[in-house]
Amino acid sequence: MPGKGLVYIIGFMGSGKSTAGRKLAAILGWNFIDLDRKIEERAGKTIPQIFSQEGEDHFRMIETEVLKSMKPLSETIISTGGGTPCHGDNMDFMLATGLTVYLKMTPGQLASRLLESSGERPLIKNIPDDHLHSFIEKKLASRERWYSKATVIIEGINLDISLLTSIIRSNQKN
Fold first, then answer.
1. Which residues make Cβ contacts (< 8 Å) with residue 15, sequence separation at least 6?
2. pTM score
């Protein structure tokens, strides 16, 4: 049954996927994997280097391969990249192999978080600060059709980690 011991945290960049994933793993006593870090290990390069040297298509190919290598894991929380669910059959794969949790946030909430870290993120590094909100609004709208397929959709701002932990635990019993 999907969801037995494998949880994918999805959402837009800056929504707190890695932070939430680490907290959940610690509370549950599970393993935590940041998919972006696994991709960097596999490629031997940082994500910005992969994007600039080989392009987004190459990055997405590696991302899908690394994601699908997670299938046999159990008792693991995996934080994905913001675009992971939106490429190939990644969202269907995650839905079939685990519980998917979407940390939902508004463009304004995301913009305010991302203004501090835009230089590290390939998709927004060249976007002027005054255009960031508009970019996020458009990109989020285009991704929402994948994000909204998640098993659990929860408010990302002021995330109730106790509630999310309870949801995951109850899913494991079913």
1. 82, 103, 104, 105, 110, 113, 156
2. 0.92
